[in-house]
């Protein structure tokens, strides 16, 4: 089994119930297709680098999981037809860093 990091961006006008349902939907797809969700992070609403599908902001979600090719195929097939998503990206990684939080706040002193 390979390790993956999957990030997807949903439209910003979704309610909190809709975003929770969306996360659960994609976790279930991973688990039902020979995958194992290791960690899920909600990165919140962020400004997109460029306008995508007439959206300037979006809800960012990040899932770290182990899976096989079938897991990725089924996940991306479902995302291609989901109208509430703006974009997504799946990246194969060598080792999962479950402790690392990419969007944690760092003080100016720690940056030096």
Topology:
Elements: E1 2-11, H1 16-32, E2 36-52, E3 55-67, H2 69-81, E4 85-93, H3 108-111
Antiparallel strand pairs: 1-3, 1-4, 2-3
Description:
By secondary structure, the protein is an alpha+beta fold. It has a single domain (2-111), classed as Ribosomal protein S6/Translation elongation factor EF1B (Alpha-Beta Plaits), CATH 3.30.70. The chain is built from 3 helices and 4 strands. The protein has helices spanning 16-32, 69-81, 108-111; strands at 2-11, 36-52, 55-67, 85-93. It has a 4-stranded antiparallel sheet, with helices on one face. Residues 106-112 have low confidence and may be disordered.
CA gyration radius, whole angstroms = 15 Å
| CATH superfamily placement | Ribosomal protein S6/Translation elongation factor EF1B
Give the CATH architecture: 2-Layer Sandwich
Average pLDDT across residues?
85
Q: Could you name the CATH class?
A: Alpha Beta
Care to count the β-strands? 4
Task: Please report the distance between the alpha carbons of the first and last residues.
Answer: 38 Å
Contiguous uncertain segments of 5+ residues: 106-112
CATH topology: Alpha-Beta Plaits
So what's the overall shape? globular
Encode the helix/strand succession as letters.
EHEEHEH
Strand content: 35-45%
Structural class: alpha+beta
> How is the biggest beta sheet arranged?
4 strands, antiparallel
- The helicity comes to 25-40%
Domains (count): 1
How do the strands line up in the largest sheet? 2-3-1-4
Total helical segments: 3
